[in-house]
């Protein structure tokens, strides 16, 4: 909104989310770990110079480097800290007044013979108020002294980071008698003088002394919890120290969830080429549209000069050519990708940290469930897991996952474990759907494989190029892609066993079960052999797809977390289709799936199983231990839900068109949320309208859903063009796609060289 210097915002404005989480205005603050702080400050010398409040800030800062630091030593003397492992020096110099002594110390750093500190944090005033009993003469002398110090600080600011900490307000009711003269009115006068003098002395904005005024805002909210009315509570000074760390380290460490003080990343070669491609597509489409429109207008009406009557149009309106449809799709996609880039790569829109509360998660859940129930319609067919029902299932799961992400509910373990089941249910549907198709249709042709791979991966490939992110970053798409290929290979390799062949000889059913057992054995082996798994996916060019941060551990973790659920989906499909073929289940409209006794028994067992899993997930104490059990037990709640949803005939015969609509664009919703609904690669929240959180969510959500729907349409249109049914044409397209990815790998290698 104001050209957006996020460093300035970080140092001067913000608000509390809850009681302890500080949210800077317009940007996100990273929470630095000790190891990250050391890596950032390696070989650095930091100096805190001032009074007891600066000493508090010094201790909080050193604890970010070494949490074992104790607040001991001479309170009214210098305190030195050194971390030898990272060659970090942090000094506190006791100068409680802005006077000649402080000026002399600062001046010594400006002289060539003395090594300058890399970071200087200074501030003082309350001692001047206390010693001189709040007199106006003391304020006048303070102005004179700070005026003499300002040029020296400016000189240091050319080579070091210099911060002047404004004085925090006090809680006057708690002050001791000896400090009663320290009033907020006096503090404001001293702060006003410091800001006016430091800002007026600055001639070069790049060498400006940074005024640390955000501490005042933090103190206004927390000073009531002070032990003596003067010094901040520990949580507040820890926040100030974290802000200091973000100001200095974000531009060095470039954390994803620390957008404050981070410069806009430069465009890569691949991004520039993508920009040129989309620009040419837009220009090409506009030219083609103008040509077609002019031709149509010329031939629209032709008057017969003899009769004076108007003849019928000489030609019909032109049909949309393949080229025009292609350019039209890329034109729309180019505009959408521009929006993606502006939202999450350019420093144009604001970003904020997530903050979880139970109400921010559960109230929207109740709201969408009510909406979903309101839009209830009859299904076209009443089979188990029919198309409308699976779309509905995907839809409500996707909406719950979106609410989970924007509310930051991953910090609440019971919610996290239930969301893990929803992700597993998506993969269960992958196993169920693809197995059913291959088993019933027996279609193992290249066209089917290419169609599925294109629809799954098109958007992600475009985002990898435009947003400069690795393929594995969008972890769910690699997951479903690999599992689709595993299902295909399992069923396509000799002997190909399909339903038509198995109906002629029951022994083929055992052959298929043997295949599934072999698949389960391979999954089990790889899940307990991390080395073998990583070797397989570390081979080039597979490593380019599955590496994240230089290794494939993230891919290993994601795959292992839901390693059995696709197999469970395939096995369920096989059993269900076998029962259906032998007419052992009743799928008529309004009919229960089994006999009354069996149906009631299974329903009771399903409800008990569903609730038992929820109780177990809610009692989880440790995420690591629960993740270990999750692959084996998640299928319990999935199967329980399927039976509850399908055994009663009436329930099976209706579906929510509201949820089904979202289900048909669930993949696009899942991927688009990374950049145009959330921000900083899902770590924060996109802010289009600052100051109005609810209105902002409404607007950004509306745009997000419309964009996801449009991308779904574009993907479907392009799939028809890029993946034709004719085998010879398809082969040519595949060669072109292979050439495209070869070029992409080449350009990727070229731009990776300067990075390394």
From TrEMBL:
It is a multi-pass membrane protein. Keywords: Acyltransferase, Glycoprotein, Golgi apparatus, Membrane, Transferase, Transmembrane, Transmembrane helix. GO terms for molecular function: N-acetylneuraminate 9-O-acetyltransferase activity. Its EC number is 2.3.1.45. It holds the Pfam family Cas1_AcylT. Residues 22-92 form the NXPE C-terminal domain. GO terms for biological process: carbohydrate metabolic process. It is an enzyme of class 2 (transferase). Residues 253-734 form the Cas1p 10 TM acyl transferase domain. The chain crosses the membrane at residues 269-291, 355-375, 396-417, 423-440, 452-468, 474-494, 506-526, 561-579, 600-617, 659-679, 685-709, 730-750. It is found in: Golgi apparatus membrane. Its main location: Golgi. InterPro entries: Cas1_AcylTrans_dom, NXPE4_C. It catalyses: CMP-N-acetyl-beta-neuraminate + acetyl-CoA = CMP-N-acetyl-7-O-acetyl-beta-neuraminate + CoA; CMP-N-acetyl-beta-neuraminate + acetyl-CoA = CMP-N-acetyl-9-O-acetyl-beta-neuraminate + CoA; a ganglioside GD3 (d18:1(4E)) + acetyl-CoA = a ganglioside Ac-O-7-GD3(d18:1(4E)) + CoA. GO terms for cellular component: Golgi membrane. PANTHER family: N-ACETYLNEURAMINATE 9-O-ACETYLTRANSFERASE. Belongs to the PC-esterase family. CASD1 subfamily. This is N-acetylneuraminate (7)9-O-acetyltransferase. The lineage of its organism: Eukaryota, Metazoa, Chordata, Craniata, Vertebrata.
């Amino acid at each position: 909104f104001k050209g957006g210097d996020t460093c300035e915002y970080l140092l001067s404005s913000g608000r509390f989310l809850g009681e302890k989480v500080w949210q800077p205005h317009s940007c996100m603050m990273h929470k630095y770990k000790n190891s990250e702080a050391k890596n950032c400050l390696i070989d650095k010398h930091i100096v805190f110079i001032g009074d007891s409040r600066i000493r508090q800030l010094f201790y909080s800062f050193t604890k970010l480097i070494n949490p074992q630091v104790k607040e001991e030593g001479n309170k009214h003397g210098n305190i030195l800290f050194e971390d030898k492992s990272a060659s970090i020096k942090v000094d506190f110099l006791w100068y409680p007044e802005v006077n000649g002594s402080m000026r002399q110390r600062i001046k010594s750093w400006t002289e060539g013979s003395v090594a300058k500190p890399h970071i200087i944090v200074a501030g003082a005033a309350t001692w001047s108020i206390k010693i001189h009993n709040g007199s106006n003469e003391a304020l006048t002398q303070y102005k004179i002294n700070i005026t003499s110090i300002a040029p020296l600080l400016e000189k240091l600011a050319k080579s070091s980071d210099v911060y002047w900490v404004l004085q925090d307000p006090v809680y006057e009711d708690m002050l001791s008698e000896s400090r009663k003269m320290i009033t907020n009115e006096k503090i404001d006068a001293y702060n006003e003088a410091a800001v006016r003098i430091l800002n007026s002395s600055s001639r070069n904005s790049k060498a400006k002394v940074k005024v640390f005024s955000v501490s005042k805002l933090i103190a206004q909210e927390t000073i009531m919890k002070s032990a003596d009315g003067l010094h901040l509570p520990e949580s507040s000074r820890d926040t100030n120290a974290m802000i200091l760390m973000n100001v200095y380290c974000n531009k060095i460490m470039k954390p994803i969830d620390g957008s404050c003080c981070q410069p806009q990343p430069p465009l890569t070669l691949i991004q520039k080429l993508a920009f040129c491609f989309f620009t040419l597509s837009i220009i090409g489409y506009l030219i083609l549209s103008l040509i077609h429109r002019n031709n149509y207008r010329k031939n629209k009406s032709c008057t017969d000069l003899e009769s004076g009557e108007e003849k019928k149009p000489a030609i019909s309106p032109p049909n949309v050519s393949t080229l025009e449809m292609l350019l039209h799709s890329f034109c729309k996609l180019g505009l959408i990708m521009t929006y993606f880039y502006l939202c999450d790569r350019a420093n144009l829109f604001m970003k904020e940290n997530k903050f979880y509360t139970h109400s921010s998660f559960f109230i929207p859940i109740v709201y969408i469930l009510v909406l979903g129930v309101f839009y209830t319609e009859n299904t076209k067919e009443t089979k188990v897991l029919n198309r409308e029902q699976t779309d509905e299932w995907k839809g409500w799961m996707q909406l719950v996952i979106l609410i989970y992400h924007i509310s930051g509910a991953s910090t609440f373990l019971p919610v996290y474990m239930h969301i893990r089941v929803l992700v597993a249910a998506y993969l269960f549907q992958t196993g169920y759907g693809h197995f059913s198709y291959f088993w019933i249709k027996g279609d193992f042709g290249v066209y089917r494989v290419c169609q599925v791979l294109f629809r799954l991966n098109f958007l992600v490939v475009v985002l990898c190029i435009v947003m400069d992110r690795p393929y594995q970053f969008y972890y769910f798409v690699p997951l479903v892609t690999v599992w689709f290929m595993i299902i295909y290979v399992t069923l396509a390799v000799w002997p190909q066993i399909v339903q038509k062949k198995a109906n002629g000889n029951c022994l083929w059913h055992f052959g298929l079960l043997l295949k599934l057992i072999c698949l389960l054995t391979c999954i089990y082996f790889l899940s307990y052999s991390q080395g073998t798994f990583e070797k397989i996916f570390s081979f080039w060019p597979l490593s380019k797809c599955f590496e994240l941060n230089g290794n494939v551990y993230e891919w290993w973790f994601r795959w292992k977390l839901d390693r059995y659920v696709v197999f469970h989906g395939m096995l369920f499909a096989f059993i269900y289709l076998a029962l259906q073929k032998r007419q052992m289940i009743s799928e008529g409209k309004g009919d229960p799936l089994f006999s009354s006794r069996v149906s009631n028994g299974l329903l009771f067992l399903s409800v008990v199983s569903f609730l038992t899993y929820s109780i177990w997930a809610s009692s989880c104490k440790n995420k690591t231990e629960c993740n270990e059990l999750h692959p084996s037990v998640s299928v319990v709640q999935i199967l329980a839900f399927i039976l509850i949803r399908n055994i009663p005939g009436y329930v099976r015969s209706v579906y929510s068109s509201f949820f089904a609509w979202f289900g048909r664009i669930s993949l696009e919703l899942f991927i688009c949320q990374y950049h145009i609904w959330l921000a900083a690669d899902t770590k924060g929240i996109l802010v289009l309208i600052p100051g109005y959180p609810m209105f902002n969510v409404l607007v950004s959500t509306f745009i997000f859903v419309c964009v996801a729907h449009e991308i779904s349409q574009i993907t479907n249109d392009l799939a028809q063009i890029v993946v034709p049914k004719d085998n010879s044409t398809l082969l040519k397209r595949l060669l072109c796609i292979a050439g495209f990815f070869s070029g992409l790998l080449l350009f990727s290698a070229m731009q990776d060289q300067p990075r390394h």
